[in-house]
Amino acid sequence: MSNAFRPLHAVLLVLCAGFSASALAHNPMCECKAIDAEQIQCTGGFSDGSGAPGVTLDVIGYDETILVPGKLGADSKLTFKKPSAEFYVLFDAGPGHVVEIDQADIQAP
């Protein structure tokens, strides 16, 4: 590599390192609580404190059928009727940003 390209190479390395650190700084988080015997409310966001409005949050049966397709609202929440079938909640903010919550892990009212 010629000396003319070394400063550019160094700048690119620093920029890439900065992007990597910021990409790791916000892990997905999702919490679901039973409001009552019929309703469940899930709240999604990221570990940096940012919300997740518009992010996909689906309720999926153990047979992999989507029981309740959904997206988080402007408040990063979604409320849905508890399915009669066994299920889990899938918060999907993209590759590497997925959280699964099994029905057994949903907090009681």
Give a brief description.
The protein has one helix spanning 6-24, and strands at 28-34, 39-46, 56-61, 66-68, 77-81, 87-92, 98-102. The protein has a single domain, classed as Immunoglobulin-like. A four-stranded antiparallel sheet has the order 4-3-6-7, with no helix packed on it.
Name some characteristics of this structure.
Immunoglobulin-like, alpha+beta, three-stranded antiparallel β-sheet, about 15% helix, 1 helix, about 110 residues, globular, four-stranded antiparallel β-sheet, 7 strands
Explain what the structure shows.
It comes from Pseudomonas migulae. This is Secreted protein. With 109 residues, the protein is of the alpha+beta class. It has a single domain (27-105), classed as Sandwich (Immunoglobulin-like), CATH 2.60.40. 17% of the residues lie in helices and 37% in strands. The chain is built from 1 helix and 7 strands, in the order αβββββββ. The strands form 2 sheets. Strands 4-3-6-7 form a 4-stranded antiparallel beta sheet, with no helix packed on it. The chain has a 3-stranded antiparallel beta sheet with strand order 1-2-5, with no helix packed on it. It is globular and about 35 Å long. Residues 7-24 have low confidence and may be disordered.
Strand order of the largest sheet: 4-3-6-7
* Residue-averaged pLDDT: 85
- In helices, the fraction of residues equals 10-25%
Which outline best applies?
globular
